[in-house]
């Protein structure tokens, strides 16, 4: 294919060399004001990337590639500037998903933020026995709190709930069989699938029942001398409706007792308060699982609970103690920042009356649609004049999602600011400009408009968000 070869050669010949790039005035100024070697490295890897693209792309892509100096410099500058900014930065979530996994799930409470800052200021009591001054047990930090709040005998926290599930299975059932209902073989985003988790934990999965119905006798018939545990998984991110049936937890607990088998409950989100009091479907409560006799229960720290990433394991003290002795626990343990934030978050639950005020996730859930509407109207009034002729603004009914697989199929009535660009800009393009703003704003694009759901926008962020929208449309 001489034609294609010629195209590649032309592009490669056109590519500027490193000296030309590094001497460009804009690149030069970047190199002078920031770590020079880092900027050089970024520019070089951009150039290498473009060279590889020219060598490896099929002809139809080749036609689109431009390799002249100005464009390569523009591109390298853009990449370098982004690399010099913090990569993890604060954003405004106007996307209307409360537990937005990609945006860090639960926004953590003020008290938890302060505890983290305190723990990080210097040294802290992470794993020290304060009486003896000798090495202590970091797992004890939350033991009493978890017992008090949930009613379980003991509790610890590890890296996340995925880690918690693996630890429990590995500790209680390595080399043995674990019985699970077919209706509960879930996949959570990010490659967390119960059958694979089971395998990696060293257990053999024994599926019982059918997709829609599983009976107590299905479990009982599957028990052999190799059975090591029974697992219940909350089908957090989907719902089976119609002719369905799962075994109630107390019956599962009784079966476990009868055969002397531990019953494990993976609750996923796991709520510590009853969501039905806010008109939402009831998410299974941790306290009820304890009361129903589950031997060990795991749930996430950063879903409904509203804390940082973590996986709580609570239940019988003997089981929690054997988890602590599992060498894998060392690999999956939390650091000082997490402990500080977990403790402060759990302590919020000791004062239920103040929870709605102090707990950001609950505050978002309980805000009345009317209140969201008023805040949205206020935002609209504030920016309407400046955006005249640039965008059409309307306050429309909308829906907030819980996110993170919590409350599937159910949303919270809300209101949104609907923005329809009148200038030559697609809604997708406006969304992108908002994401690149300072602070970045995440929105939703629907029906040729951009939607801002203020339920997930923290109080006090509205003004900055309005400015970001004005800038994006300027
Ligand atoms: C979310 C979820 C997990 C994983 O929890 P992470 O804290 O994200 O690791 C495991 N099991 C269930 C049922 C879940 O809903």
Q: Please report the number of helical segments.
A: 21
Are there runs of 5+ residues with pLDDT below 50, and where? none
Name of the CATH superfamily of the largest domain: Type I PLP-dependent aspartate aminotransferase-like (Major domain)
Largest sheet: 7 strands, mixed
- Ligands bound, unique: pyridoxal-5'-phosphate
**CATH topology-level fold name of the largest domain:** Aspartate Aminotransferase, domain 2
Which second-level CATH architecture of the largest domain applies? 3-Layer(aba) Sandwich
Give the termini distance in whole angstroms. Answer: 48 Å
Radius of gyration: 27 Å
CATH class of the largest domain: Alpha Beta
Average pLDDT, all residues: 94
Portion of residues in beta strands equals 15-25%
Structural class: alpha/beta
Overall structural domain count: 3
> Helical residue percent?
40-55%
How does this structure look, described?
With 474 residues, this protein is of the alpha/beta class. It has three domains: 2-83, no CATH class; 92-101 and 364-472, Aspartate Aminotransferase, domain 1, CATH 3.90.1150; 110-358, Type I PLP-dependent aspartate aminotransferase-like (Major domain) (Aspartate Aminotransferase, domain 2). The chain contains 21 helices and 15 strands. Strands 2-10-9-8-7-3-6 form a seven-stranded mixed beta sheet, with helices on both faces. Strands 11-12-15-14 form a four-stranded antiparallel beta sheet. Strands 1-13 form a two-stranded parallel ribbon. The longest helix is centred in the N-terminal third of the chain and has 21 residues, at 36-56. The radius of gyration is 27 Å and the shape is globular. Pyridoxal-5'-phosphate (PLP) binds at residues 160-162, 165, 188, 192, 233-234, 236, 266, 268-269, 300, 311, 405.
